[in-house]
Amino acid sequence: MQIEQFVEITRDVINKPGFKGFQPTVCFPERKNIRALAGVPDSEDHELIALRWAEGLAGQGEEYLVAFRCSATEFKVVRFHEGSVEHQVHAAEA
Q1: CA distance linking residue 29 with residue 48, whole number of Å
Q2: In whole angstroms, what is the distance from residue 73 CA to residue 70 CA?
Q3: Which class for 53: exposed (0-12), middle (13-18), buried (19 or more C-beta within 10 A)?
Q4: Closest CA to 20 of 67, 89, 73, 65
Q5: Residue 25, beta-bridge partner list
Q6: Which end of the chain is more exposed for a tag (fewer CB within 10 A), N or C?
């Protein structure tokens, strides 16, 4: 899955309940599985928590993408694929 595809999926998710309640989300394209991590307090570092959580769920060498809030108006997507890491920051509203 390309990172832009997951950005659009993430924006669709954000548009339903709103960005304030957006929780870290991981996508495993080969499994066709998306999961959210509930209960991460606003006071905690979402990036650190999301990356550790997703890494723990991923299989050895498995592609996965993680999205999480990085500011009051932006989210970050990180893609792990074939030993490389790609990341982008996007506005919550397109």
Answers
A1: 22
A2: 8
A3: middle
A4: 73
A5: 36, 67
A6: C
Read off the pLDDT of residues 71-86 as tens digits, 9 standing for 90 and up.
Answer: 989 999 999 999 899 9
- Does pTM surpass 0.90? no
CB atoms within 10 A of CB 58: 16
Arithmetic mean of pLDDT over the chain? 91
pLDDT digits (tens, 9 = 90+) for 36-48: 999 888 888 899 9
CA 94 to CA 84: how far, in whole Å?
27
Q: What is the 3-state secondary structure (H, E, C) of the chain?
A: CCHHHHHHHHHHHHHCCCCCCCCCEEEECCCCEEEECCCCCCCCCHHHHHHHHHHHHCCCCCCEEEEEECCCCEEEEEEEECCEEEEEEEECCC
